[in-house]
Write a structure and sequence with these properties.
Helices cover 39% and strands 19% of the residues. By secondary structure, it is of the alpha/beta class. The chain has 2 domains: 229 residues, Rossmann fold, CATH 3.40.50; 167 residues, 3-Layer(aba) Sandwich (Rossmann fold), CATH 3.40.50.2300. It has a 7-stranded mixed beta sheet, with helices on both faces. It is globular. It holds the Pfam family Peripla_BP_6.
Length: 429
């Protein structure tokens, strides 16, 4: 099922799409077996654009490792081989892809665009690793941000490189706390574990940070199935809310903000992911000064190294629609390469022990892995949508003419939160 022509072509692309048109294996100067990375992601269906953005980011990160000679091990440098598996965003498909990846030799799994899929993969990997210690698997998570994944459901085999939802909400609240024009909010999200967590965290943090703000409505909608959000926008307008708080992502966010524009809602959007994947273009001029997004990094972070980094990404992927760059995914691959080299082996337990103390930096952004719960610690920023060319907005998003000006920066210490993780660690021979 997964040995499709597209998968084969993707594997070739991951190995061969270097600037000089040579394969990654040739670039390392030896015929060592590649280190296979299995990307299990929704690459078709309503959130395919988000999956393809992940693919581009991880491909580019692997290419940088190839360009410097590969991952250095005692037996010689080895390339990274990134192989695509389409989960279609479904738990059952993700588990089937995991089985296929393991059988093909992959011992490192990458996934992120669904906390529900991530939870299913963690459970499956835990069981597999206990049952089959000779083929243990590591799970590197770049976007699944339900807090429980590094709290109650933390796993020795799982490493999260994105800030979880509570950390992201904390960053948004640092801005909303000072936004006295907002007296009432409407909460809306996708009806699954992450969307439910965002609404719960919004209630909790509003009570702590802005007890004067009234919650005028709450809504959970089916994920990936709503084509027309105008009825939801009508309820938001009728509530009298001055702002919407949402964790929606992908097409569910694009359609929501487009409906808000068409329906004449003139309030603010406090979002987790409003900075790309069609959202700025969908809302257009109506979003200037009104759409906020929290991220680990934004292209308009004022730093010469960050600017050079972003320009190089846009040179690699010149189509305007392809310019959604994720710094955390670049740091994740750097942390993996660093950890394999320090472990001097690709054996999963040994690499995990090194990942627990990963400390990586790129283009002015630095992050460290917290060993107690495997939650990456990194700075966060909040951006406000504005026209390209205004002060602080040299870069637009996806050719839309609009970008995000950084209005708040949180250090890694400021963004950090305590954990309730009680990790069950395997016996390490």
């Amino acid at each position: 099922m997964y040995a499709s022509r597209r998968k084969v072509l993707a594997r070739i692309a991951a190995l061969g799409a270097l600037p000089w048109g040579v394969s990654a294996r040739a670039q390392t100067g030896n015929a060592a077996a590649p280190i296979r990375l299995a990307l299990i992601e929704g690459l078709s269906g309503p959130f395919a654009n988000a999956g393809e953005a992940v693919w581009r980011n991880l491909l580019w990160a692997c290419e940088r490792v190839h360009a410097r000679g590969g991952v250095v091990l005692p037996g010689g440098a080895r390339p990274l081989e990134l192989v695509r598996y389409d989960s279609k965003g479904q738990n059952e498909e993700a588990i089937a892809a995991l089985r296929s990846a393991i059988e093909s030799g992959a011992r490192i799994v990458l996934q992120g665009n669904s906390s529900a899929n991530a939870a299913a993969l963690i459970d499956a990997i835990e069981k597999h690793n206990e049952r089959d210690p000779e083929r243990q698997v590591l799970f590197l998570n770049y976007s699944a941000v339900d807090p429980v994944l590094t709290n109650e459901r933390c796993s020795f085999w799982h490493f999260r490189f994105d800030a979880h939802a509570e950390m992201r909400m904390k960053a948004l609240m640092s801005v909303l706390r000072e936004d006295r024009a907002v007296q009432g909010v409407y909460l809306i999200g996708q009806d699954y574990s992450f969307g439910q967590a965002v609404l719960r965290l919004a209630r909790q943090q509003l009570a702590a940070e802005r007890p004067d703000v009234r919650i005028l409505g709450e809504e959970l909608h089916p994920m990936g199935r709503v084509k027309d959000f105008l009825p939801y926008v009508a309820k938001i307008k009728a509530s009298g809310a001055q702002a919407v708080i949402t964790g929606n992502w992908g097409n569910d966010l694009t359609l929501l903000v487009r409906a808000a524009r068409e329906g004449g809602f003139d309030g603010k959007f406090y979002t987790f992911y409003g900075n790309a994947l069609g959202t700025p273009a969908a809302i257009g001029e109506a979003g200037v000064g009104r759409v906020l997004a929290v991220a680990d990094w934004l292209p308009n972070v004022p730093d010469p190294a960050a600017e050079a980094f972003y320009r190089s990404f846009r040179a690699r992927f010149p189509k305007p629609a392809d310019d959604y760059v994720h710094m955390r995914m670049q740091l994740m691959i750097e942390a993996l390469a660093q950890s394999i080299e320090r472990a001097a082996t690709v054996q999963s337990r040994a690499v995990a022990l090194q990942l627990e103390r990963a400390d990586v930096a790129l283009a002015g952004q630095r992050g460290t892995m917290r060993a107690v719960d495997h939650q990456f610690q990194q700075p966060l920023v909040v951006g406000l949508m504005d026209r390209q060319g205004t002060p602080g907005v040299p870069f637009d998003v996806e050719g839309s003419g609009y970008g995000f000006r950084v209005i708040r920066r949180l250090s890694a210490d400021d963004a950090s939160l305590p954990t309730t993780c009680r990790m069950r660690r395997p016996q390490l021979a």
